[in-house]
Amino acid sequence: MPLVPMRVLLDHAAEHGYGVGAFNVNNMEQIQSIMMAATETNSPVIVQASRGARSYSNDAYLRHLMLAAAELNPQIPIAMHQDHGNSAATCMSAVDQGFTSVMMDGSLEEDGKSPASYEYNVEVTRRVVDAAHAKGVTVEGELGCLGGIEDGHGAGLTGDEALAHLTDPQQAEEFVAATDVDALAVAIGTSHGAYKFTSEPTGEVLRMDIIAEIHRRLPNTHLVMHGSSSVPKHLIDIINKFGGSMKPTWGVPVREIQEGIRNGVRKINVDTDNRLAITGAIRKVFQEKGSEFDPRKYLGPAREAMAEVVKDRMIAFGQAGHADKIPVVTLDEMITRYSG
Ligand SMILES: [Zn+2]
Predict the structure, then answer these.
(1) More exposed terminus of the chain, fewer Cβ within 10 Å: N or C?
(2) Which domains are assigned to the chain?
(3) What share of the chain is helix, strand, coil (3-state, %, to 5)?
(4) Least confident of 195-209, 243-257, 267-281
């Protein structure tokens, strides 16, 4: 089946009360890991690429890898999403490359670093919504600023600073009315990267209550949690056991994500956990078999390790078992819906 608009997956998730993991990719093995996990669990798929990923892998490679995934897995609906578009031009170039969903992150200026004004955010997001919806493509916006930096994108806020840039529920309501976004990324105290929290997060640093309030005001908008890797200790331990030197760190516990899903979260961005799994698996081969030099002998185990993490998340988020129940809706049909 061709790549599907992300909106279709999120609508189904909302209707049936589950969340969909959105996993970042840069290469073939990561895409294969996600598809292995999806076929094993009958899960719909959101694959996403940041600007950094698009330039690392090249749009043409990425596009053909995604088309291969769709060709080989006709029973699985797959959405391809631009993560953190920094400008209308970035988003529309993604649409031209066949992405079926884009994030316009107008919470930051085009430099991807400086927090932007609310007015700028509304204007640029509205512009992307108009252009993307005209092609049936889904749009995610962001209000408030997350902590940390991901692929060079982010204001670099620390935990305390991030708490000063949380999403305001009243403003979220106005933002969605003014922009007509399909999905909204909210800042509730999470950060990008591996070093999110220095201890197990409590209700004071991870503000799930804000999600509940936004969902109450915007029951028909799909909420998105960024920076939602759980950073499991066992993955850090594997890296360190085989020569790594990662400091102790805490992510967003899966049970908190599940609480978010009960409160309108439909898309959960996970990147770090997969990176940790890949790195641990490669380190293990390098340490245990110093003479190994066939890339398949370490990229293969890395692919397996990432597939295990993705599978765990697909089951925990509730998307497992739904792939074959999702109605097929094309981009053309979405154009009609948006214009109706
Ligand atoms: Zn993000």
Answers:
(1) C
(2) 6-339 (3.20.20.70)
(3) 50, 15, 35
(4) 195-209
